[in-house]
Amino acid sequence: MAFSKYSQGILEYAQGLAAPLDAELLIVNVISERDMEAVNKISSFGYKVDSESYVATIKMERRKQLGELTEKLTLPDDKVSFSFLIGDPTDELLRCVIEEHVDLVVMGIKNKEIKHIFAGSVAERMFRRCPVPVLSYRGDDIAQRLHKHIEKYVIDH
Q1: What average pLDDT does the chain have?
Q2: Class of domain 7-155
Q3: Which residues, other chains included, contact 117 with Cβ-Cβ below 8 Å and sequence gap of 6+?
Q4: Which of 48, 59, 153, 157 is deepest in the core (most CB within 10 A)?
């Protein structure tokens, strides 16, 4: 969960898949190791910031966001869990898939540029490396943009 404008749609879609199967919904958020490296670099310049405080602040902010997002879910509380991880997002998600015995990953794409959607993103790496199915959720705006792109560059040529 990247806490983007698409997060609510992704959660509702995942819930729609999980509910009829009586499946659990594990929401995962990864604090990128690149962010941690940036915090450590800033700290090395003498600024009063450290990685522990940064992680604590980020977790607090994201827990609040998660609370707001999950208010609308109708799954029983015992069917929804949340995990914070720190590291390379793709590696951490893959590790979580294995350790938690995940059956399906639901991800969103949020980049505005069509050419970046499957070129170097976490989603693209998950599609290539994940041992379980990865479902790509698309918000209406992305779906419309992709539709127009296909019409313009594929169908019209």
Answers
A1: 85
A2: alpha beta
A3: 109, 111, 123, 124, 146
A4: 59
Closest CA to 10 of 65, 69, 64, 81: 69
Residue 144 and residue 157 in contact, taking contact as beta carbons nearer than 8 Å: no
What are the tokens at 2? 């990247």
Other beta carbons within 10 angstroms of residue 97's beta carbon come to 21
First to last CA, the chain: 37
- Give the start-to-end residue ranges of the domains of the chain: 7-155
Buried b (16+ CB within 10 A) or exposed e, 56-95: eebeeebeeebeebbeebebeeebbeeebbbebbbebbbe
